[in-house]
Write a structure and sequence with these properties.
By secondary structure, the chain is mainly α. It contains four helices and no strands.
Length: 103
């Protein structure tokens, strides 16, 4: 997990630098396009690091800390909590109405 955290940190550090150059006035347009492509690559690399390190925690950790009798319930609560919190973050963090969410 430490390698995953270090990789995520590096990717966001590179994203910060690269996005700065895509918005820099006077920077050549051809170079801005290449820098933007590199920023997208680091964005996907971030999720690769996340996938092999932190993504399994809501599913793996509850099954390891609970007894055998409570293992399935713990996994269900961990997974449900992960999905509910993700939903709240996605719907609550947007100032505008989220896409696909109509009242």
């Amino acid at each position: 997990m430490m390698l995953g955290a270090a990789g995520q940190c590096f990717c966001y550090f590179m994203l910060t630098i690269l996005i700065r150059y895509t918005e820099k006035v006077g920077y050549p347009a051809a170079s801005q396009a290449k820098v933007a492509e590199a920023a997208v690559a680091f964005f996907f690399l971030y999720y690769a690091f996340f996938g092999f390190s932190f993504q399994g925690i809501p599913w793996l950790y509850p099954t390891e800390i609970n007894s055998t009798a409570m293992r399935t319930r713990g996994a269900a609560v961990g997974t449900a909590t992960n999905w509910i919190v993700n939903f709240i973050v996605v719907c609550g963090a947007n100032k505008e109405k989220p896409q696909g969410h109509h009242h």
